[in-house]
Amino acid sequence: MPYQGGKMNLNLRPANECKFDAVSLGEVMLRLDPGEGRIRTARSFRAWEGGGEYNVVRGLRRCFGMKTAVITAFADNEVGKLMEDFILQGGVDTSLIKWMKTDGIGRICRNGLNFTERGFGIRGAVGCSDRANTAISKATPEDFDFDYIFGELGVRWLHTGGIYAALSEQSCETVLAAIKTAKKYGTVISYDLNYRPSMWSAIGGQAKAQEVNKEIAKYVDVMIGNEEDFTACLGFEIEGNDENLKELNLDGYKKMINEAAKTYPNFKAVATTLREVKTATVNDWSAICWADGEIYKAKGLQGTGDHGPCRRRRFLRIRSCIWPDDYRRCRAGSKLRRSARCTGDDHTGRHHDGKQEGSRSDHGRRRRTCTEIKILFPRGIGQMPCPKGLALAGCRKHGAWLIARGYKKRRMLLYAQTPPDCF
User: Fold this and answer.
1) 241 to 70, 227, 416: CA distances (angstroms)
2) d(CA 103, CA 108)
3) What pLDDT sits at residue 149?
4) Which of 179, 189, 300, 371 is 20 to 30 Å from 57 by CA-CA measure?
5) What's the rounded Cα separation, in Å, for the pair 393 and 403?
């Protein structure tokens, strides 16, 4: 059923009493992205920051302008300073970061690395983490003044999750101390179960995961997890569910959540995303949320990939490429830029005299002929040779990416995905 609104009251602390709208507790790693290539053959990587818990507060800051901070720990070296700089660029407060001394080679503590390779078509994405012995995995409750953070400073919402809890036996204790203190001061707590068998295996496996998560669940207001998470972390079973977990039995899920709510009456909401994988870049997406004894299901997005809806695909036909010098400076969310022109054709496909390199368009923007197409994706830039004859237009509505329009002459073997409302 659709959500009617106005029923659930989370009892958030007043904003004027709190310095932060939301704070995350968890590991932030240096993410190394090989772009369009493979990790095993890469000779260069683009660097980012990322972490399951941190990503939430970064999104709240960048998308909704909320005041957010991250509780984490870094080894006090140049890699740690680099990650701090990334966090600052995301607008997230870094004053709660614990800086830990290191011996220079990582024996005492180090900063985590995460190599992430994109998937294409039937080839899935590949991740390779190097995160043992990190500073945050060794951080104790005494390394953070939780009474100061949640009491004196004030935090309206704390988000943490099972990935941080699984880092080490010490992190299990630290996350429990944090949520108990946050609960004492009236902070709303959300927790993403996010069960990863490989992470729990070294500290006791599924039995340890259930021991820790069952204790954490007693203090959680908003629990996030799918059917596998609830089964592995909290020991609940879904009746009539597909044993391979390919399809979710909503009636069974609702019954399981109601049972979980009886066991943990502190739960105010339970939510999870629903994803059906078509290819590595195309998925069907939806979400469900339990609140006040009812299940609410979001509108489904069919055939959605990393670059927005992918219902329309086309082969591109090439002759030459001209684009505005200021294209890459246009802001996200801007209208479709139709100002690019093709030597020999205009954007409507009608023939006209080609413009010379460096000439001005009808819109007064200076243009140049490109020897290379830069196809912009949300996670990086891929490059390919540009044969003569391609007209380009940019659309930022569904992310930072470039759209090429086809023409009738020579074809090029480039497969593009374009949002349905662009052309």
Assistant:
1) 37, 9, 37
2) 6
3) 97
4) 300
5) 5
Read out DSSP for 272-339? EEEEEESSSSEEEEEEEEEETTEEEEPPPEEEEETTEE--EEEEEE-S--EEETTGGGSPTTPPPB--
Is residue 233 within 8 A of residue 208, CB to CB? The reply is no
Residue 14: which H helix or E strand, with range?
none
CA atoms in the 13 A half-sphere facing the CB of 71:
30
Cα separation, 220 vs 160, in Å, equals: 10
| 157-161/188-192 β-pairing | parallel
What does the alpha-carbon distance between residue 151 and residue 178 come to, in Å, rounded to a whole number? 12
Give the amino acid at 27: E
Instruction: Give the angle subtended at the CA of 227 by the CAs of 225 and 232, to the nearest 5°.
Output: 85
Residue burial 43-80, b: 16+ Cβ < 10 Å; e: rest: eebeebbbbbbbbbbbebbeeeebbbbbbbbbbbbebb
Main-chain phi, psi angles of 210, to 5 degrees:
-70, -40
Segment 355-368 shows an average pLDDT of: 39
H or E element at residue 81: helix 78-89
**Cβ atoms of 414 and 348 closer than 8 Å:** no
Residue 17 has a CB neighbour count (10 Å cut-off) of 9
Give the contacts of 400 (CB within 8 A, at least 6 positions apart).
332, 376, 377, 378
CA triplet 298, 300, 303: central angle to 5 degrees? 155
In sequence order, the β-bridge partners of residue 310 are none
Instruction: Provide the Cα torsion 69, 73, 74, 76; round to 10°.
Output: 110
Q: Are 33 and 379 in contact (CB under 8 A)?
A: yes
* 55: three-class secondary structure by DSSP: helix
> What's the residue count for the chain?
423
More confident residue, 150 or 337: 150
Q: Which helix (H) or strand (E) holds 195?
A: none
Question: Percent of the chain scored above 90 by pLDDT?
Answer: 50
Strand partners, 276: 284
Residue 7, SS3? coil
Amino acid at 16: N
